[in-house]
Amino acid sequence: MPQAKKRRPMIRRRRGRPPGRRRKASRPKHRGRRVAILVLLLLAASGAAWLIWPFWRSSARFGEQAQALPSRLYARPLVLTAGAAVSPSELERELEELGYRAAEGN
Questions:
Q1: Of 35, 47, 78, 82, which is the most exposed, with the fewest CB atoms less than 10 Å away?
Q2: How far apart are CA 74 and CA 41, in angstroms?
Q3: For residue range 76-106, what is the model confidence (pLDDT) as tens digits?
């Protein structure tokens, strides 16, 4: 008959920390960094909203005004350049056709 192997006594070993050391209170690592990042993100979002808000409001107002007022188109612009041969009477006639009127001045 073959001999049975000797059994070793079972010893439970703790894994992780050496015996005799107290375990520290558990708390998340880098908590301060996470809070700082969260605060910076909130500040950035509120700053972006503060900058965009006036433009958003004014664009809404332009949309309302565009439907309320009729558009006016001016088809014939008067182009004046230095050295162009335009007589004073032609210039006066063009300005009157565009709706300008004479005013008394100094």
A1: 82
A2: 50
A3: 677 788 888 888 898 888 888 878 888 887 6
Q: How far apart are CA 48 and CA 56, in angstroms?
A: 12
- What's the half-sphere exposure (Cβ side, CA atoms, 13 Å) at 32? 0
| 92's tokens | 């006066």
Statement: the pTM of the whole predicted model exceeds 0.85: no
Question: Distance of alpha carbon 72 from its chain centroid, rounded?
Answer: 35
Six-digit token string for 34 = 């996470």
Q: What is the pLDDT of residues 1-37, one digit of tens each?
A: 567 677 776 676 656 666 666 666 666 677 888 999 9
Instruction: Tell me the C-alpha distance between 16 and 99, whole Å.
Output: 93
